[in-house]
Amino acid sequence: MIVLLVAINGGFSHAQSDTDSIHHHYTIADHLGVPPEPTNKPVTSIKTKPNIETNSIIHTGQLDEPNSPQFGHLARLSGQKKTLTPQKRKQLDGLLVLNNSSQQAVPRNIQQQDSLPDINQEQPNSHSLNQQLQATKIQGSIASRIIDPNLFITKGAFLDCILETAISSDVAGMTRCQLSRDIYSTNGKVLLLEKGSHIVGEYQTGLEQGQARIFVLWDRIETPTGVILDLASPGTDSLGRSGHSGYVDGHFGQRFGSAMLLSLIGDVGTYYANKSKGNSNTIQFGDTIGGTKDLASIALQYSIHIKPTLYKNQGEHINVFVARDLDFRSVYELKLSQ
Length: 338
Known about the structure:
Distance between the termini: 164 Å
Order of helices and strands: HHHHHEEEEEEEEEEEEHHEEE
CATH class of the domain at 149-247 and 311-327: Mainly Beta
CATH architecture of the domain at 149-247 and 311-327: Beta Barrel
CATH topology of the domain at 149-247 and 311-327: Lipocalin
Oligomer: single chain
């Protein structure tokens, strides 16, 4: 009987304990509230890549072998093999931008220049048949038409002129001449440059040895009616040869006179020195004679570079070769005469 009562009492006690436990769980759940709904975004671990300083990597399918120990993990990726599979090569494309922010990516065309041959190097067969067969290509010309030939003086015309000033090439200077006849348009119908128009020119100093002509650039022309036109054309002679001829002074006396005089003095001293050899009372001037020869060579060294001078007198006839098309449409206008 006692055993039965204990068993019954224990069963009721166990049932009450289960009821208290369930009630306890309900109480905790009420305090925590409704649990949040799980999100669909999976949580992934973020791994930071080490800051790697790389040099330029060329798309060759192979890895360089840098000296820096920071590239050790790159060599272990392929098991010390340089040739990469296509999949790893695609992954390696991302490493091309792993340079520091202070460095810029090198363009591929610049990276590939190392493998290109140097075209500036001289080829052994510079006169080969392949090079001799290269034809010379000349750009063609397109014909055009003068808008109004009545108001143009075209390139190649001659202007006959008379010098009003003399020319000396010792010093650079200006000169002027006067047209000796009327100059008409290209078609010969309209008078554009009247007789008596003045042309102003300029020339440089000095002639080279052997030259007998001076170059004059005729710059501007002014007509009696007040028309001014930039000419910028060279002067010629009556046959069209460039430059103006004249009397040329070669300065022979100035170039060689002092040297010849000093040499003559030295020869006279040598003559008297040889003539009086045996006479114990004669004074020797050997050092003086040697110094005279040295002075002669020094004088010749400085005077030999004197340039010749060209003289051209006023009143002589010259020509000006028109080197550009002269357009008079801005100052002249044609009208029908009644």
